[in-house]
Write a structure and sequence with these properties.
Number of domains: 1
Largest sheet: none
Distance between the termini: 19 Å
Helix content: over 70%
Radius of gyration: 15 Å
Strand content: under 5%
Length: 102
């Protein structure tokens, strides 16, 4: 997976998406229902770092593969949707398979 630029984006997308799920599904309920704001501080910081790295990887892949304009836009938007990176991953797999065959 890490051998191609798109594979690197898929890999980073898993981490970024997983951190979003932990933030929304675990840390925020801990803060608002159980009064543990430290959970959001810690997980939010980690998620923010991973989001910045994810955006840098999107920029890298865009320039290396000469993506059309909509791929980086979609890649950025799905980062805000829980499980969005999983949906994008299937499309990226198809894109990568189609370009390897060509």
């Amino acid at each position: 997976m890490l051998k191609s630029p798109i594979g690197r984006l898929r890999f980073m997308g898993f981490f970024e998406g997983f951190s979003l799920l932990i933030l929304v599904g675990l840390a925020m309920p801990l803060k608002y229902f159980f009064g543990v704001p430290e959970a959001v501080t810690l997980v939010g910081s980690i998620h923010g770092f991973l989001f910045v790295i994810y955006c840098l990887v999107i920029a890298y892949v865009t320039f290396v593969t000469r993506w059309k304009w909509y791929w980086p836009v979609i890649s950025f938007i799905v980062a805000f949707i829980p499980f969005g990176n999983l949906a994008l991953d299937t499309k990226l797999k198809q894109y990568e398979a189609g370009h390897e065959a060509a």
